[in-house]
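ok so for the tutorial part 2 we go from a plain amino acid sequence to predicted structure tokens. step 1 is just haveing the sequence, like this:
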Amino acid sequence: MLPRSRPGRAAEDRRPRVCGVRTHWTTVADGEFHCPDCGGDRNYQRRTGRRRLTLLGLPVLPRGEAGPVVECASCAGHFPTEVLARPTTTRFSALLRDAVHTVALAVLAAGGTGSRTALAAAVEAVRDAGDEECTAERLTAVADALAADTGRRTGGEDGATPLAAELHEALDPLAPHLAGLGRASLLLRAAGIALADGPYTPAERDVLTTIGAALTLPREEVTDLLTAARTPS
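step 2 — the prediction. this is what the tokens look like for a chain of 233 residues:
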């Protein structure tokens, strides 16, 4: 007579549990986010839950609240709500495009828009960032207006000029989501615009230093990068 085999794990899992804890989830919001497990943009539901002790599958006693969590609609993974702070791919692209546009304008405003080579470098940088309709005429008009505004107005109580405020407004939301190499690359691109028509002017160096600070790069690294940018390779 063959020995009776023991039930496998699958069979054990199908047995009704005498008691346990079940969570009832309620959706309170939804949207799109960058799912860490999927590695891309996905829909999500923000959910809160209530735990209940169950007896023979029936809820009998409350056991407190669960969550809130962010649930991916694709992989059903649960994540802390902090995951929503990371921009989606679409949002990140928009932040980067706006940052490069503002950086290019700031450098042009500081150095003047009379240089065709600097304008060409700025247009190329903005187009590479995704604004394919950028033109030298459009950049010139906005940069001249920004330079005039900076010249007319003084800084506020914190000493910030309108130009510095524009840079921080564009770069502060982006910097936490850029790796160190990405932040350095953006500063070098700005330096390339400033150097397109010759050495840095004092105003250009001030703007580049402000860009480095807004990108949360250490001052020593900013100095090294600006020096490296003007050294022929």
